[in-house]
Amino acid sequence: MxxxxxxxxxxxxxxxxxxxxxxxxxxxxxILLSTIPNRTNEEKVYSFQEKFNPKVLDAFYxxxxxxxxxxxxxxxxxxxxxxxxxxxxxxxxxxxxxxxxDYHIFGLAQKILGNMTEEEFLAYQRNYNLxxxxxxxxxxxxxxxxxxxxxxxxxxxxxxxxxSSIPSEYLSQLNELYxxxxxxxxxxxxxxxxxxxxxxxxxxxxSTINKIAEEIRNLDLRVTT
Length: 225
What we know:
The protein has a single domain (3-217), classed as 3-Layer(aba) Sandwich (Rossmann fold). Helix content is 53%, strand content 13%. The protein is built from 9 helices and 5 strands. The radius of gyration is 17 Å and the shape is globular.
């Protein structure tokens, strides 16, 4: 096995970054590393957090219609750059939001909500299809699923000013698109995690990472780069 790609997918505020960060560090990373057959010292758990230009994100939330196309291209390019970095890694790779989400969730949402013109969306769609045609899905997707009320609470807790005005209707639309994406478009195995939890965060993370490890053991690990 060169590497195993695990996509951590889900709505804004559902806890993807928290999970990816915890699972890539001791002691919880050992739970995942224990699943690697014939493990060597070269193999690690790599976390690829979603990175974005905060100015672009702020501009999008302030004026979605005026900035959706520019923002979507910016975020998509960032995810493409991440794929290049992934190629040199050996071990388990945790991806905070995946390339397919760019189109199936956020790109489509901008079209549905009228934030992109038809011409803008078609240009974005052509670019997406061209650039991703030879990039495979992750080997496993972990779908963190939460109600809109939970998402709003967590967005408020983390206190990003640009996110303070996200309407519940937008999160609801994204949740609907995630359901369509997971159950109609994703071909790889999917582990669904109920993220509407009141348990202590350490307990939730430990339980979730153990579930991921169990799912990894059920995969055919003869994966390639």
